[in-house]
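forwarding from the other thread:

> can someone predict this with zinc ion?

sure thing
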Amino acid sequence: MRTMKAMVLEKPGKLVLKRIPVPTIGDEEVLIKVRYCGICGSDWGSYNGKYADEVACLPLVTGHEFWGIVEEVGRNVQKIRPGDRVAVDICITCGTCYHCRRGEPLLCSSFQQIGIHVDGAYAEYVKAPWKNCYVVPDTVDDYSAAFIEPLTTTINASRKMNCELGSSVVVIGAGLGIIHAVMAKLRGASPVIVIDSQPARLEMAKRVSADFVIDISKTPDAVAEVMRLTGGVGADYVIEAVGRSQTYEQAFRMLRRGGKLEAFGICSDDDFMKVPPVQFVIHEKKVGGSCAGIGHDWEVAIDLLKYGRIDPRPLISMVVPLEELEIALKELHENKDLVKVLVCPDLSERIVL
Ligand SMILES: [Zn+2]
Ligand SMILES: [Zn+2]
């Protein structure tokens, strides 16, 4: 039996480098040799057992922000050939439940994601249904291709938020939040305001997308600052891209009357936010959210990269070998100057960019 190296999350806090069998593909699946897999903020949560639905899936090979080269295709596979560079829509939906039939696949009652609920790409190989694969053109470079999955999540959120020319948009959190800000700017939002506590991240936000940044280590009352920057009105849209109840509460307070909170940061199941419901009624504040990109979002992400509408490379801080995944997870948690770290199974020594 062919084996491969993989980082297996055996239980919360226990990530083990192992040799395990190379996935066996079905007739509708392809086998992909992983080139790069980005470390997601949610991987830290998964590693620590923050999400109950994921803990239920352990042991598991995690890693969901990946692309690779197709090595083998199943008997019924169409359009995808060995040698293709592919990014993979990680969402697996049933297609037949109430939500799928209504065109709400992200709400599928048996929703699963590759690298979150089924084996993912912190390994030399990963398998995926061919219908989830999108060919990445050569004009999209290797590092940027690893950004397709996170990009799709911001595209889906941006589509749901649907901000217009001249809308004021606040993004709380300058990790993937920087990309939310880019997306808002592409839609003509003005001003775009990014909030974080890390000067290096805010510097980057300013360089790539933000009109204003608020450093909460220096300006603790971010709500007052947003009010000031929006002429006392509040923001049309606030995207929470941190995943903490306190920042969700702040986000709600920054909204103008009639404004909309776009929920993106993932909290634990036992985190709660306190909001006065009267503001839904009297102030017509709204809340929406989404957890992932799906389907066509992949084509949009590839096009945005292909036509240079977004350049994610400044956000990529380093590339590490698969064996360094656990160290990198901890480094990402502790060193907030790191934004995106990619894992590469073929690499023997880390590359700091
Ligand atoms: Zn992710
Ligand atoms: Zn379904």
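Residues 93-94, 97, 99-100, 108-110 surround zinc ion (ligand 2) (CB under 6 Å). thats all i got for now
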